[in-house]
Amino acid sequence: MIGIILFIVAMLLLFFGFPVAFTFGGLALLFGLFIDGLDMFSMMSFRINSIMTNTTLISIPMFIFMGIVLEKAGLANKLLVSMGILFGKIRGGLAISTIIVGMLLAATTGVVGASVVAMGIISLPVMLKYNYDKAFACGVVCTSGTLGQIIPPSIILIILGDVMQVPVGDLFKAAVIPGVLLVMAYISYIVIFALIKGEKAPAIGGSPTKEQVYEALKAVVPPLMLIVFVLGSIFAGIATPTESSAIGAVGAVLLALMYKKLSFDIIKGASLQTVKITAMVFAILIGATAFSMVFTYTGGDMVVEEFMTTLPAGEYGFLIASMIVVFLLGFFLDFVEICFIVVPILGAIALTLGVDPIWFAILIAINLQTSFLTPPFGFSLFYLKGVVPEGVRTIDIYKGVIPFIVIQILVLGIVLAFPDILIG
Amino acid sequence: MNKLIKIRTFLDSISKSLGYISAFFVLFLALLILYNVISRYAFSSSLIFMQELEWHIFSLIFMLGLSYTLYNDAHVRVDIFYEKFSITLQSIINIVGVLFFIIPLCVVIVYTSIESVIYAYDIGEGSPDPGGLPYRFIIKSLIPLAFVLLILSSISFMIKQVENIVFHRQTKHKKEDML
């Protein structure tokens, strides 16, 4: 029971806003010292040591670096402008191009905040200028930004792979179909919306000229090739995710060179930013380690397991309950915290129940992505709020994301009902 | 107060240089892994110690980065309410947090990890694989070292909070640091 109390107290303390990593770690420590003295933590250095020697996790700083370099090289801008021209002449074309760019950015940079901000600054004003419905345009931007969570290579999948003890490459592979499914569902919705309410998502301009098509291809093909190379080498088993991540990092620098954006400042800035984000992630992992030691030591995991396994409908009862828990926590916590603190507890139960860990991990990833989109707390909404042009109200953003949340839940349901599609 | 600011400036310069060292290692790590991949395929040779060097460098990045991240106030927070609090309240929360959470956590980690460093040194622990890196105690001593440095960085962080209260200054919280 003490473990459960620890968890609840930690959740409450989080709202004071002190960094999550230290709130969880420090509080667990105080609880542990109080219960059983220092003995409980004698394994702490071994646990940290095993984080240090974990070769899969090495891919995290590499993929972060790759993303930041591409972001700083102005990839989002380039892609948005050229894709906008390509799709402009069809109804809802700007929205479709935003989704497609969102998908490309998800695979290359994977930085949700940066993607939403870039699209909010570049695409949103263009859509509004051509009389797109405000809510609709905001929904499109928010949604396409969150794709970075699910489309590989994503940090969330690497962490989930580590936590669930499944090969990251398998997880990347399993995420491809749900990711594409989501993108197709978004685009279908946009096409239907534009057909019915043409005035809210009008076509712009005429057919692109040959030069414009060429320019667009020049913007799209290099990053696409980088991503095919990185993912392809993992899927083909030529390189481990860690090796591919380093190839991606160096590839990103070459791409920046090609775009004539490479400078010492970009590399320096990207490396420093990588250090910050990486240390932030691993601080949470260390804090979560201290937490889970106390949680397990005091039998908290048994309490949760007992509860979760007595739910009606067995496996599905557990899955649905876990999805609800993760969804709600996603309002307040970043995916890093959820993956390191909550998923290990749920994952252990999933294994006991014989739930396929890959399937479970993908469900969690889609779920978190949905949670990031859901008002009033979704992270993606906050990012967009920060950059919307004047005249767009918060309520427009909230209204705009609702259809996309419905789509998310539908896709989540499909993956839940037909786990076989993941193998595809 | 001036003395405190001097101490903070000194401690900050440590955190900053740790950040730059780690940043350099990010690049170095990318090239190292790339080199290992190429040498595996092109020369079909893979040196165990070169591969072990990967995780050595990787641990340096995030362990030394801990202090730099605190210096930048980039450890992720749940900021729904926090960002609406007054600067004074924010600063008080931060001071209490450092005193009750960060410092005890660091002290315990330093205390419990020193033993394993000494043990690794005594038995002359090296890599379990032939051709691996020797002197495991060096990389193991990174654990206590990193957390001593984190204590230093958190002291400077506390001084910054005191300054915020005294001078009513606003610390900037950057959204773009989040993923």
Summarize it.
Chain A is mainly alpha-helical and about 425 residues long. In chain A, about 75% of the residues lie in helices and about 0% in strands.
Overview of the molecule:
The complex is a heterodimer of chains A (424) and B (179). Chain A has 424 residues and is mostly helical. Chain A has helices at residues 2-14, 20-36, 44-52, 59-72, 75-87, 93-108, 112-129, 134-146, 155-164, 168-196, 210-235, 241-258, 264-297, 300-309, 314-332, 335-353, 357-371, 379-387, 394-417. Chain A has one domain. In chain A, 77% of the residues lie in helices and 0% in strands. The model of chain A has no long low-confidence stretch (mean pLDDT 89). The longest helix of chain B is centred in the N-terminal third of the chain and has 41 residues, at 2-42. Chain B is mainly α. In chain B, helix 1 (2-42) packs across helix 6, helix 2 runs parallel beside helix 6 and helix 4 packs antiparallel against helix 6.
SSE arrangement:
The complex is a heterodimer of chains A (424) and B (179).
Chain A: H1 2-14, H2 20-36, H3 44-52, H4 59-72, H5 75-87, H6 93-108, H7 112-129, H8 134-146, H9 155-164, H10 168-196, H11 210-235, H12 241-258, H13 264-297, H14 300-309, H15 314-332, H16 335-353, H17 357-371, H18 379-387, H19 394-417
Chain B: H1 2-42, H2 48-71, H3 79-82, H4 87-122, H5 136-140, H6 142-167
The structural domain count of chain A equals: 1
Mean pLDDT of chain B: 88
First-last Cα distance of chain A = 42 Å
Helices of chain A, by number, come to 19
Most extensive chain-chain interface: A-B, 79 and 64 residues
Please, how many helices of chain B? Answer: 6
Give average pLDDT of chain A, whole number: 89
Principal-axis shape of chain A equals: globular
Tell me the number of strands of chain B.
0
The helix content of chain B, as a percent range, equals: over 70%
